[in-house]
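your task:
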Amino acid sequence: MNVTHLSSAELVSELLALPVRQAPLPLPCACDAAATYQAVEHAPPELAHKLSVARELLLRDMRAKMLEGPVMASPKVVKDWLSMYCAGLEHEVFLVLYLDAQQVLIEAEEMFRGTLTQTSVYPREVVKSALAHNAAAVLLAHNHPSGQLSPSGADELLTQTLKSSLMMVDVRVLDHFIVGGDRVLSFAEQGLL
């Protein structure tokens, strides 16, 4: 079930719903280590659903905080949102956060989805979308499923290409974030922008 389409009230209802009673699973034999690990690895679908509902509620709450004022006044909120958004993804995603002239969030969009090690990003599409959102500035972000935070040469080149392309239409790139596990690297903080 895709929880992103539910209202906040529906999400809270899902989260607080009583669990459906199921027949208990047989306990594994203490002498069978493989059976013990298998029981732990396979969380019940109901638990997975509740966790996805809780994650969606947290993302919405963090996003609401980003709408309260200039996003870069509190980069930690952005980093926390990005870390939560990318948590557990086994593929790369490229996100653009569109900001108005006061640097208040207009929209956050997952523009491109890739594989385990790469994502194709098309500067033309980023420019078109920034114009469609009437953005004055953007924040760029992508994840490294490996957990590695160091930007690659391709990451740095892409950032400069997007910065140049967006500058042509008077849209500023304020930062590019890389998410690796629960850590977030800021190009601006590293002097790479």
